[in-house]
Structures are given as C-alpha cells and as structure tokens.
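Researcher: Please predict.
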Amino acid sequence: MNRPAMRGGREPVSTVGRLGDAHPRQEGPLDLRLVPPALAAWGTAALMVTGPPWWAGLVAVACAVGGTGLLVAGRGGAGSATRPWRGPSAAALLLCIAAAAASAGLHGADLRRGPVPELGAEFARVDVELEVTSDPRLTRPRIRGDHAAPTSVLVEADVVRVTGPDGRTARTRAPVLVVVGGGGKGDGGDNSGDGGERGARGDRGETGGDGDRGVTSPRPPGKSSQVHGSSWLAVLPSTRVRVRGSLAPPMVAGDRVAAVLRVGSGERARVVGAPSRSQRVAGELRAGLREATGGLDPDARALLPGLVVGDTARVTPELYAAFAETDLLHLMAVSGANFTILLALLIGPPGMAQRVERRGLAPRIGLPLRTTAVLGGALTLGFVVVCRPEPSVLRAASCGLIALLAVATGRRRSLLPALATAVLLLVLYDPWLARSYGFLLSVLATGALLTLAPRWSAALRGRGVPARLAEALGAAAAAQVVCAPVVAVLAARVSLVAVPCNLLAEFAVAPATVLGFAALATAPLAMPVAKSLAWCAGWPTGWIADLARTGAALPGSGVDWPGGWRGGALLALGTAVLVLAGRRALASPWICGVCALLLVLVVTRPAPLVRGVTGWPPAGWRLAMCDVGQGDALVLAAGAGTGVVVDAGPDPLLVDRCLRSLGVTRVPAVVLTHFHADHVAGLAGVLRGRAVGQIETSGFEEPPDQVAFVRREAARRGIPVVRAVAGERRRAGPLDWQVLWPPPDPAPTPDGPNDASVTLLVRVAGLTLLLLGDLEPPAQRALLRTPAGAALPPVDVLKVAHHGSAYQDPELLRRAAPRVALISVGRDNPYGHPAPSTLAALRARGAAVLRTDREGAVAVVGGGGGELRVFP
C-alpha cells in the first residue's frame, strides 16, 4: 500500500482497506454545545418534581412558547450577514427546560393522584396488589444503644390495586416503599439493621446485610405461591404480590414515593403474577453467580456479586464501613466502570473505535463496525436488565448506546456530548434522577474523567511520570476532586486515602469484573467452570477488600468535616485553592516529594512522631479507654505491643484505630463483659491483623443474635471462647486480674445481660483498677455481699458502670473510693449518659471524672508510690 502524501502539514489520511475501517479521529476543542441544555433540564427537573404541578405546567408552557418563537425568528433572520443569530441555541435551552418541567410535573403529580396518598395520611390498614419494581434488600446494619436495631426488608413497588378500610377497591398506579418486618430483634449475624426508610431510596450499595438468610431457593416464588418474612428477598422485579399492611406518609419530604407500606414479618403475601421472562433470566443469572461464589473466602464471596451485578446482600457491616471510609463504595455497587470494561473488551478503547488499528475482540474475529455496534447494543440492554436500572447503570448504558450509534453511523462524536445527551434523556425520562446523589456522583466522575483527567495526565507525563501511571493518577485525582464535596455533604468526612486506594484498586477492578462476568455467563451452562472463574476472580476481589480495610484502619485515613452544602462548598473552595497551588508545586520535584511525605505521615501517624506532637499515646500508659462512641472499649497494657482488651465497642473501625494508635499487635485475651451490641459489635476490629489468645465472655448468653455473632467471628479465626467465672485469676505480663462477677450461674435479674457483666479487679505496676462493665444496682449490691466483694479495697481507677447512668449503688462507690473515674460515652447520646447525679456523687468523693465524649480517648499513666497521671 502506497503511503499518501501529506497535505498542509497535517497527518496523512489512511487508506481504508476493509469494511469497518475509518479515518483517524481528529482531536479538537471540547464540544460543549449540549452541556447547557442538559444542565438546564437537570436543574429544572430537580426543582419542579416536588413542586406544585400547576407551577411546572406554567414554566413548561412559557418556555415552550419562548423557544418556539426563537426558532421561528431564527429562521427568518438566518440570511442576515451583519450579525450572527444565536436564537437556535437559546431556543434549544428553553425547549429543554420546557420538556423537563412538563416531565417533572407529570411525575410529581403521580405521587398525589389516586387514593394511596390519602390512605397514607390516615395510616390506614389496606389490602394491596403490588408490582415489584426493584430487588428487595435488607436495611444497612446499625447499632442502636445496647442492641441490634431490627432488620427490615425494603422493596420498591407500584400499587396497582388497593382496598381501603371501607371495603372499596380502586385501581391506581402509585409508587410505594414496602417495609417488611423490623418489629423485632434482627437476626444479628451482622449486628443490626437500620429499620427505617431514610436512605432506603438511595442508590445500590447504600444497604447491606446477609441476604442469604431465609432464602431457600434462588428461583422466584411461582404464581399463587406465598412469601413471608425474609423470603421477600427472593422476589424478582415485575412480580405481582397481594399483601395486607398499613400505609403511612413518606418519612422524607421530597421522596419519590406516595406512601410507605409497612408489612409485618409474619404477614403472608400471595404472588398473583409471575415476573417477566427477562427478569426470570436475570434472576437465574444472579443466583448462578451467588452459587458460583459460595465457596470463596468471605470477602470475595460478599464483594464479587456486588462488583459484577450490584448484589450487595452478603456484604458485612464492617466491610461496608471500610469501603465507605476509603471512598470505594462505587466499586461495591455496579457502575459505569463495569460497563466501560465490558465495552472496551468488545470494541477496544472508545477513542480508537473508528481507527484502522482499533482493538478489542470484534476486529480480531472479523466483525465490521456496524455489526459490532449492534452486538454492543444487545450487550448494553442485557447489562441493564441483569444489573438493574440503577442511576449509574442507566447513565453508563445511555452513554454507551450513543457512542455505539456514532460507531455504527461512522460519525465522529466526542464522549462529552454523549454524556450530556445521556443526562438530558435520562432526566426527561425519570426526573427523580435529578435529585439522586448517586446519579450526581456518577455524572461528576464521568465528566471529570473526560475533561480534567486527560489534561492532568498530560501534565504529569510532561514532568517525567510514566504514561500508564500518569493516566491512572490523573483519573483517580480528577474523580476525587469533583466528587469529594458531594461526599462531604453526605458523610461530613473527607477521606485522605481515597486517591491512593482508588488508584491501587484499579489494577484489580478490570480482571475481577471480566472474570466475574464470565462466571455469570457460564454458571447456567457449566457450574464447575463458573466456580473456577469465580475462584480466579476471588484473588483480585480479595485484594480490593484488603485494600479497603487497610486504608480505613490507618489512624489518619480521614478527617471530620462540616456536613451539608456549606461544608461541601467550603471543601470545593479549598480543593480549588489546593489544585491551583499544586500546579506550581508540580514544577519542583522537591516540593512534590515533601508534600507526599507529609501526606504519608499524616495518614500513617507513626507512634513516635504522634507522641512527640500530641503526646498520644503517653509513655508508660497502663490503661487506655478508647473513644468508640456510645459503647465500651478498654485496653490494659501487658508489655511491648501487647494489651488485654476489655470490650470492643460498637464500631470495628474505631476500636481498630485505637489499638493501632496504641501499637497493640498481640492480645492475650479479649474480655467481653456481656453480649450487648455496644460492647461486642466491634470485635472484628480487635481481631483484624492481631494475634489473639482467647475470648472470655459472660456466662449469660443473651441476646442470642450477638452471642452467635461473637462465636462466628471467633470460629472464623480459630480463637477459643471461654467463660469467665467469679474467682478466676489470670496473668499477662505485668497484669494481674481477678474476676469478681458473675457467679457460676448468673440469674436473669432485672436486666440480665447487664447484671451478668464480667467485673474485673486489675492490678498493674502498683495501680488497682475496677472495671464494672454495665452492672446495675441489684448486681452491684450482690457483688458486695460476695467474699471478694466484701474484701474490695479502695481503687485508683474505676470504670464507671453503664456509661455513667443514674443507676449506681452508693455503697459500691463509697467502698471503691476511686481517685479517677472513667466514663465511656457517646456524644449527644439519647440516653442522658452520664447522669448528673452520678457525676456529682463521684466528684463528692474526690474522684477526677473523665469522659470520652469530651476528652476523647483517655490514658492512665502511673506506678507505685502513689504516682497517677491521666492523659489528656
């Protein structure tokens, strides 16, 4: 083939040698013409969808008339050579606003139309026929006080028929949120449930729990079958169900439901319409992936279905919290990244789709461009059905379809207009997306990857950074910069490890996604092959989970930040200043090195450096009370890097950070005073990465869900669980402790778990410590009547019972006569802890009172000879 001559200094045009080849794409300035209409439609939909329908109609009519007038005037003045007429652009803007206002008004009116909103306002008991519109899911686990909040199953559905208390039946179409259960204790395997509607409308990945519980078959219930309790989790979208429940108004103003339907966990529902064929196929594929991943390690078993199809049912609270802390939640929910990987596997990089040297599977097997586009369209539709039409999935699929259309027609279009078109079409189709934080984050991240990332990558390459590393750094930094303010609005926290964690995770996302989708596709045909592919995908998936946990456990992984839009605006301003300053810093390798070193020091907080700056942990500490919120977690020094942990608090991340800051890597014993969730739910954080000898617990095994949780965590790591009984004495290095309570057969007195708390008398380096757990006055008085209690000496430090509640025995406080009283309590807790009467009684006896809600973590330093110091 002869090489064509160059014309005008431009690149030569390649000769097309086969069907599907095209001219190379010429780069130029960004095409922003569709961005203003898309943003205008987005803003209009967000404002109008919750407003009065008449206002939306008025705006729609006014903008439609104005836009049409500009179009007509533009045609009449098109031949004018004296001044270019810009009417068409303004007309497009007004017409997009009109369309968005009309769509938002109609969708908003759906929430006020029919009998469902009125029945919800009356809290009526009704019989309804529902059409399920989303995958049922468990509420995200949460600890509330001393117990695990009840779990609920959340189902989004449309009411198509309703029978009110008066017996009248009406046909309608009203979206509702169905809340099944939540009236009793959760099953407890993963601590607790949220139990409410707030946040239930969020994007996939906002909820979690062990979805396998109660689901006896991966197949959906058949026609005329019954579902109840957790078997709701097996119901597929498009299934029709009849059930009896109570309607209530939406919990959150501006939500996209007409009412909330509460269904008791014992209420039986009858399936009256089977799901559609496409949903059955999708359900079988998802169930096949769950089966294929069933034999993997717990992290890979939980994460891989979420990474591939957005199935987060197995994700534990601890893993979810780690992903949230490191800003990796977008990986736990299926997103545009998954579809981009699949599309790139088929057609290669989108920027090379129309070049002779295009890549991907399609050109390798000889498929022309148009056939490739059709195949890509089918792949897109299948992706949406299997992964469910979540905001990020819809946005990615829309962009993909538009890009495939450009490939099929041979027209050269950049991806930024495709993104703007996708936003415009999606907002017009579903105006509620305009109020979705998930949709906002998805669009912002994609826009950053299309605009900022290439420029930042080029700047890094210009300063000698290798091309692949520069591209990855530019993409991770650009996405984080634009998304961080929105995340701060929601979480009131800024992650300092998000960029490195996302950067390192990218190396594992592509192989995990490709292998996961391969397992999904092969599971119905050859389950052994699917299991082998899932096993291969488990390696990169496990890497992502380990990365999230490691990043979240770093002492300086994040900083608290003001929440709400003010905090988001402040972070956006600070980020802009930092980016401008960073442009100059990049010019100097020395400045870059110093900044990187400072970031590493801030994130890792090495103990010698932190001790020199903050004084924590103080040298020679004997006891440290961790700040874990409304709960207990206490560490007793037992030698270099060794500590005995008494209780684990409610949050694995918080107790893990505390132990890391103290330098504790070996734990001879974990003493769990009793099984309330605010004392045991953080156990996974204590066990992570540490050599643990044994776990000692109370003999009163209530509540059973938390007992099962503790035993499961211990069994996973092969740690023995033993029972602590009064009279037992143990040693660990300089520590010597005696169990004072409970007796061998604890009785369920007024508050069984609290009154069966393991109570310890500890001696270390001449100090005497009394740790009371959550003992209530009846058990405190019974303790004083025992031989060990009668001989109770005055103590140096008292861990006040039950977070300093008002229920304390005066005689025990008099006998203990502590010099220092420590109270572990959460800020602004709803229980009134610590009680003013308890604080007054302690101070009246000369005790110095320190509380974690004001002082944070507290350490006691001292030894013999009466020396005793407290930090802070």
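Model: Confidence is low (pLDDT under 50) at residues 1-27, 78-85, 183-224, 350-357.
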